[in-house]
Amino acid sequence: MRIKDLSPSAALLAIILAAPELSSAFYLPGVAPTSYPPGGKVPLNVNRLTPVGSQQDGQLRSIVSFDYYHPAFHFCRPEPKPQYVSESLGSILFGDRIMTSPFELSMGVNETCKQLCEKKFDQSSAHFVNRRIAQQFSLNWLVDGLPAGQLIEDEVTKTKFYSGGFALGSNDDKAMHLNNHYDILIDYHELSPEQRRVVGVIVQPSSRVNQMADTSGRCGDGGPPLTLSEASETPVTWTYSVYWRPSTTAWATRWDKYLHVFDPKIHWFSLINSAIIVVFLTITVVSILLRTLKKDIARYNRLDNINLDDLSGTSAAIEDGVQEDSGWKLVHGDVFRTPSHPLLLSVFLGNGAQLFVMTGFTIAFALLGFLSPSNRGSLGTIAILLYTVLGFIGGYTSARVYKSFGGDRWKMNIALTPIMVPGIVFATFFILNLFLWAKQSSGAVPFTTMLVIVGIWFLISVPLSFAGSWVGFRQPPITPPVRTNQIPRQIPPSSTYMRPIPSMLLVGILPFGAIFVELYFIMSSIWFSKVYYMFGFLFLCYGLMIITCAAVTVLMVYFLLCSENYHWHWRAFMTAGASAGYVFANALIYWVSKLQLGGLSGSVLYIGYSALISFLFFILTGSIGFFASWGFVQKIYGSIKID
Ligand SMILES: *[C@@H]1O[C@H](CO)[C@@H](O)[C@H](O)[C@H]1NC(C)=O
Predict the structure, then answer these.
(1) Cβ atoms of residues 396 and 357 within 8 Å
(2) Which residue has the CA at smallest separation from atom 12 of ligand 1?
(3) How does pLDDT run across 571-619, given as a tens digit for each residue?
(4) Distance 14 CA to ligand 1 centre (A)
(5) Which atom of ligand 1 lies nearest, measured to the CA of 110?
(6) What are the DSSP calls for 65-119, one per residue?
(7) Could you tell me the sign of the dihedral formed by the alpha carbons of 397, 402, 406, 408, in that order?
(8) Crossing angle of helices 391-404/378-389, nearest 10°?
(9) Which pLDDT tens digit goes with each residue over 2-37?
């Protein structure tokens, strides 16, 4: 299965881009190709060093990344000093730190054994670097925006593809070897003699003690590898060679080799599998529910008619009394009773609506091909901007819901909606960042970026949310179809599976099942820094998750009301949100099976980020479940006659 089968929009984009005359007006920002004349300078920028999973056991040994110019690495610096390359907000947040480098690449000009600089490694740097080699760190370079990778063969499909980075060093049984020589192989596509484009970059790093070019100009090949001594100083010479190779790959398809799907058949298979199960279950649930409901409603309304028409018919009245003793109609005077903590619930629901719309739009943008992989971090940037702008929806929903609950602390509602959930997220993020600062990791978000985020939040998101709340409070409340009794009904004891915890466990697993397959790929793209681009899958999964979440929560609420328990508000929110518990548990399993994070901070970071994501997921799914149930309850009580 080719990449193109997977994302039609990318294929479409590729077709558009492949016709230069037609398409010159259509390039999306940041995706326009750069052409270089022969001998023209091609930029090589360096990004942070990231840990990758080991080749042998697929385990990840660290999740902390480091700046390329971290002093302990002793990489050569450009003169006068390295500069930051401008990046998008999302790119910075997701950890990119792109800087200029001293490598000089001229289009089409081969270089052999070019010496960059000489450095001395002291003991502590040697120790630091050896540990990073043991943790399988890899270097991430960008040549003309394209990552410099290594050629890897997929054992299952026997296809070759490029990894996103290349190894800092290697280790055999005896020692760690630092790679101090790079063979840079660049593929270029010749459009015309004066226009060449970079379409592929491979780096073959190697470790060599003897760096003097021999007579063949081959840079000490075959010599012993370099080991950094942790007992004394080690001199290291950094060298590189550049080889330009003409290629037939068109610029528009240059990313294909990077976006490799490990065994797409399994991916498709498991996705379709879970989709069928989910759809089948949902349809069954909904059809049974609909039939039962129809019967219920018909019965209730028939009984009502008998009641009114046949005043003297005692037999009918008795039958009526017997019949009415069961079912969800009994709680009609209580279902719309204000839930406990209406303020908290409405704030959650406002934020949930905001997240819901944001996620939908982000995936849709990605699906339409607006977020190309060469636009680094565009996904994160779009998500943040959308979340900010959608503050209006959050405020509106929260206010409208709160008003419908009959809440009177409207000032608190307006203030808490844009502050509470983002505040929790930001505070957690900030604390986790402190850990990264302490580790001198480049993953730490710079202070200025933090300020920018807080600025955007307070200057755009909060006012928009206030505006939304204002509009929401001016709208009429959503009125329940039945009157609420003065005195609350007694709730009979419920059966085991209707108790809060069992029902949460039962209901939560289905929405989780819908996204389970995709979650695995998302996690490996987050932690193994792989490019994620399967937005078609993601879109499908998001849809499935929404449907399942709504359907099972509605079913649970129906059972709850049948058991004469009318506290459905929080129950619907919590049971649907329980799928976040599964997401978190899944992250923990992933942690045990795929990661070997030595040290406390790595584990704290991993758990912290997983908890953060699960929390947002909790609010998202909880809100989906709540609104579906609310609609359902409004509908069923609106369709029976209450005297
Ligand atoms: C540069 O090196 C590559 C790979 O060895 C070779 O195919 C190409 O012809 C060389 N180019 C020049 C201009 O020598």
Answers:
(1) no
(2) 110
(3) 999 999 999 999 999 999 988 887 777 677 778 888 998 999 999 999 9
(4) 28
(5) 1
(6) -B-TT-GGG-----SS---BPP--HHHHHTT---EE-S--EETT--EEEEEEEEE
(7) negative
(8) 40
(9) 333 333 344 333 333 333 333 333 334 446 788 899
